[in-house]
Structures are given as C-alpha cells and as structure tokens.
Amino acid sequence: MVEAIFKTHDANFAARPVSPFDDGLLFGNNGFITAPYGDYWRFMKKLCVTELLSPRQIERSRGLRHEEITRFLRKLIRSAAKTEVVDVGALLTQLTNNTICRMVMSTSCSEENDEAERIKDLVKRSFQLAGKISLSNSLGPLRKIGFWLYSKEANEVTSTYNELLEKLLKEHEKKAKNNGGEFDREDKDLMDILLEAFHDEKAEFRITRGQMKSFILDLFIAGTSTSSETMQWAVAELINNPEIYKAARDEIESVVGTSRLVEETDIPNLNYVQAIVKETLRLHPNAAFIPRVCHQDCKINRFDIPGNTPVAVNVYAISRDPAVWENPTEFCPERFLVSSSKSTQTNKGQISFDFIPFGGGRRTCPGKNLAYALMNTTIASIIQCIDLKVIGEGGKGAKIGMEEAVSMSLSMASPIQCLPLVYFNPFEA
Ligand code: HEM
C-alpha cells in the first residue's frame, strides 16, 4: 500500500491536509511543510535540494557541527568531573537547536544570545499551540471554541516571531549590502540563500517575506526535535544494551584509533554506528504517522479512494511488522549491516518501503542527509568518550524506562537522568 502511495501514485498523494490555521498565523498554509503541491512548493523543494540542504551546504557547515558536538562533549566531561547528574535529552536538544540556529542564521541559542534564545522559545510555544489547536480542530462543531481560546495567544506569538525575524532578515540584508549586494559569500547561511532568492527578479517563483519567515520556522520545527528525540532513543537503547555500546566503541577505536575525537568524515567507515542510528529510526520513528491527501479519485489494490481523502501512512506499524522484520520489537542494529546474514532485510527495506522514517516520494524529508550527519557523529562521539550511569532505583545495571510520551512526535516519556563518566577525553592531549 505504501509503495502505491509513495511511488506508483506519488504525484496524486503529494499534498498534505490543509492546515486549520489562518494563513497569517504561524503554521498557516504559508509554510513549506503544509504547502499545497503547487508552484511555491516546487520552487522551495528545488531550492532545498540544490542549495539550502544540498550536499555542498552540508559540507560547508561541517565545521559548525563539529564545534557544537565539541561543546556538548565538554559539558558532559565537566559534569563528570563534578560528579553531576545530567539530563542527556536537554543537552541533545540544546545541541540540535544551536546547530540548526547557526546553519539558518549564523547565530546560536545560548544564554548569551538573547535573540536566538527568544526564537527557540517562540518555536516551542508555537509548537505547543499547534498541538492544542489541532486537537480542538477535531472536536467537530465545537472546534470554534479552540480558536476562540487560543487565537489571542496565536496572534501574539506570530507577531513577536514576525518582528524578530524581520530584524534578523534586515541585518542579513545590510551585511549583504556592505558586501556589494552579494549574498553569495563562502560562509553564507540559509537565511542568505533565502534572501538571494527573494531579491532575484528573474526567479521562476517570487517568494514573499511571509513565506520566507514560515520556511525558517519549518526548518526549526522539522529539524530540531526530530533529530534530538531520535538521539535520545538511541542513547537509551545503548544504555540498556551494553554489549551494543561496547561493540560500537570497539569499531570506533579500530577505525579512529585512541588519540583523537571521531569526526563526521569517519562515518562512512563506521558501519555499526550507522546501523545503530538506523535501527533507532526503525524502532522509534519520530514521525509515527505521515499525513498526505489523495488529490484525485484512484484505486489502490481493491480500494476505491475518492479525491480529497486524507491518508495517514502508519510508519510505526510498518517498522514493527513481524511479516517483514524478525523479532521486530528487539533493538538489533545487526539487521542493518550489509555483511550480516540479515542484510536482505535492509535491501528489502530500501526497495520495498519497509524502512520509511523519512517518508518517501517527492514529498520525502529534504533534511535526511543533514539529520544523518548530525546524529551519526553525535552518537559516535558519545560512545567513544562517555559512559552513562543510570541514576535511580536499581543501582548498577539499572535501565532507562522506554515508555513513549503522548505528544505530536514519538518522544520519550521520561528524561534520561545519568551520571556521565569519562572513558576517553579527546581534549586532554
Ligand atoms: C531524525 C530526523 C528527521 C526525521 C525522522 C524526519 C522525518 C520527516 C518525515 C517523515 C517527513 C514527511 C515526509 C513525507 O511526507 O513523505 C519530513 C518532512 C520534512 N522534513 Fe524531516 N525529518 C528529520 C529531520 C529533518 C531536518 C534536519 C530537516 C531540515 C533542517 C528536515 C526538514 C523537513 C522538511 C522541510 C519537510 C517537509 C517536506 C515537504 O513537505 O515537502 N527534517 N521529515
């Protein structure tokens, strides 16, 4: 069925349900994620693939990811020295927020940076609001109550976000003006690329300022908690499966040695680390359901699907289907190793849409390569440098609770509270 939706009938299922939000509000139909399948979406998709999230831009930003991972590790090492318990999830959230913030507008979310911190809070508030409004939208005739309850807050968040983004856009425009009107510097960020398209009179589609601001919000929504929540699941699985932790550490030591920190460029040689991240995405897909809409009447298998029917692809169920995956609820990275006897599952997964944490078809996630780059390197760095001891009842060998939270994405119900212990300090040399 999913192959029919993502491949055979891809163009017919390339739209998403219309957003219940007013276009002027955050999460209205100005955004890219919710955009109808039309000229605006096509233009932005091309910009994502060729510029914004292209291999070249990912390569350009490799240094800043390295700096953010280093900053994250130093925090863990400092806490270890003070025998201080840390909330690993909170640190991973900071890491992804900083990384995306810096990639988008060359500034990071930290206590010292008020603007980036305010944006981060606005994104969080708007995400919570979106959840509440979506819920009230499902109340049928009572849906107006939701809008009445939340519209004041939604307007307030939107106008503060607009003001702040406008200021940052103007600063970027001023910087380009001082540079002879050129946005095309070697260190250009995603905001520069968007502004370049905005000012390009010959562009095949003229994006508006509102669309630019919504797109930036989309990058935060789609790019931060997705990666950070997936990494939290990976860390929890690693703590609960010490033999996998050790096998991955052995792999890193044999590839990287024991005198330097693992780098993003090592990842192609770290098959087991990559398999850990893939297995995490299989067992804990952050987007458990993918919403699409069928545009025109069509027939799939024996089902007649009328045009305008909303469809939810159940990624969670596909990833745990016992007809496809052996011992589906078991965390087993080996199934993603090409040399393993279970490798047929991986190959089968790629061809027959059994492994779809990033969706599929033309509406597939454009941030997939960036997400893998950040997640693989961060997880490898933790494995290489840090042991995490679970705090709480159970003493030595205590496990992390794996309950899922009730939320819009598949996140963990409880924080990962751990005492970090340094195994290898790469900054000591
Ligand atoms: C673990 C990390 C991530 C996961 C699991 C994930 C998953 C997904 C999924 C399932 C979709 C819907 C695809 C479909 O309809 O077929 C999606 C869309 C999207 N993702 Fe990601 N994503 C992740 C990271 C990122 C990152 C890092 C970015 C960019 C910074 C990003 C940007 C987007 C955008 C812009 C869309 C909308 C695409 C469209 O509607 O055409 N994602 N993502």
TrEMBL record:
Specify whether Cytoplasm is a keyword of the entry: no
Q: Name one GO molecular function term.
A: iron ion binding
Recorded GO cellular component terms are: membrane
Print the keywords alphabetically: Heme, Iron, Membrane, Metal-binding, Monooxygenase, Oxidoreductase, Transmembrane, Transmembrane helix
What does the entry list as the binding residues for heme?
365
Co-factor(s): heme
> Which topology term describes how it sits in the membrane?
Single-pass membrane protein
Q: Which Gene3D superfamilies match?
A: Cytochrome P450 (1.10.630.10)
Q: What is its main location?
A: membrane
Taxonomic superkingdom? Eukaryota
The subcellular localization recorded is:
Membrane
Q: Which family does it belong to?
A: Belongs to the cytochrome P450 family.
This chain's protein is named: Cytochrome P450
Give the species.
Corchorus capsularis
